[in-house]
Amino acid sequence: MSYKILQVSVLLLLGLILSSFNLAYVVICEVPLLFFLLAQKKKKNVDPTERAIFITGCDSGFGHFLAKQLDGMGFTVFAACLFPEGDGAQKLRMECSHKLNVIKLDVTLDEDVAKAKEFVESHLPAKGLWGIVNNSGISTWGEVEWKTIQDYQKIADVNLFGSIRTTIAFISLIRKYRGRMVFMSSLYVHISCSLTSAYTLTKRGLTAFCDSLRIEMKKFGVQVSMIEPGNFSPATRIQPQHTAEEVWSKLSEENKSTYKWEYIKEVTELIKQELQNGNANVNEVIEAIVDALTSATPKAHYRVASALEKVLVFLCIHFPAYVTDTIFSFGLRKLPKL
């Protein structure tokens, strides 16, 4: 009996300690945070008048729609396109105001980036360059053994080093006007699944770069944000539509004997279905980028994804690898056995 009383006493004591701790936590941490957030809410969003935004990858996808949106809001827009005479660039010229400027830019070329910066500097409005959106990106898919080092290098040159190259060139202008820097990453930096290693590693590298940059830029009043979209393949068309025949033709004889035609065929069909299941509506992504550029209190990370994708992210972050490996393996269960 006395032992049970002792147990109850200990539990009550722990309860009091925890409740006291919780109360202290609320008083010390939560209350000041609440007042801070309320104070931030009173700050006005950024006025676009006489401010410029530089966007890479405006030929299509997020960059194209963002350029239109920011132009409509009143920003001076520098829309960098890989093909300045292509359909995407021509649409921007026809559908946007005179405040939108189309610039040729291949983010893998130093000379292109230097010329783009020179043009922007000579055409800045009164309040300067407020934001840069590193949006250029390409993708590929396939198992590691099917790829060459050149395949990985090509993706990294655009997605990772292209963004870094552009950032280094324009960082002094953004710092001068205490503006914003936005990077297009991917929700899949948190989800380690097969067939996407080349794309995912570049986005993880970009995330690490941005996290460091964000801390370094705080002392200058520059805000750095990362956008993490889920599957928006129907809207961006970033993922190439390789046929099974194309994939098969690039395999070595050893890989052909290992993976077999039926396996390649089924993987190709799986990727095709996954791309078709993506979100075709980019509005939520564009809203996130605009918020990062104009909000008085922009977020460090914006996750724009379906409920299922967010659940997968939660599992990948909080559960051990064998759990998520099992989940992804289950998703590939219908592929032919090798």
Major sheet size, sense and barrel closure: 7 strands, parallel
Shape: globular
Strand-residue fraction? 5-15%
E-strand count: 7
CATH superfamily of the largest domain, called what?
NAD(P)-binding Rossmann-like Domain
* CATH C-level name of the largest domain: Alpha Beta
Count of structural domains: 2
Unreliable stretches covering 5 or more consecutive residues: 1-14
Mind telling me the C-alpha Rg? 24 Å
The chain-level structural class is alpha/beta
On the 0-100 scale, what is the average pLDDT?
A: 89
CATH topology of the largest domain: Rossmann fold
Please give the count of helices.
13
Provide tags for this entry:
338 residues, alpha/beta, Rossmann fold, 13 helices, globular
Descriptive notes:
By secondary structure, this protein is an alpha/beta fold. The chain has two domains: 1-42; 52-331, Rossmann fold (3-Layer(aba) Sandwich), CATH 3.40.50.720. It is built from 13 helices and seven strands. It has helices at residues 2-41, 61-73, 87-95, 110-122, 149-159, 161-176, 197-217, 233-236, 244-249, 253-276, 283-294, 307-318, 321-331, and strands spanning 52-55, 76-81, 100-104, 129-134, 180-184, 223-229, 301-304. A seven-stranded parallel beta sheet has the order 3-2-1-4-5-6-7, sandwiched between helices. Strand 5, helix 7 (197-217) and strand 6 form a beta-alpha-beta unit. Helix 2 crosses helix 11, helix 4 (110-122) runs parallel beside helix 6 (161-176) and helix 5 (149-159) runs parallel beside helix 7 (197-217). The longest helix is centred in the N-terminal third of the chain and has 40 residues, at 2-41. The radius of gyration is 24 Å and the shape is globular. GO terms for molecular function: oxidoreductase activity. Keywords: Membrane, Transmembrane, Transmembrane helix. It comes from Latimeria chalumnae. One of its GO terms (biological process) is steroid metabolic process. Pfam families: adh_short.
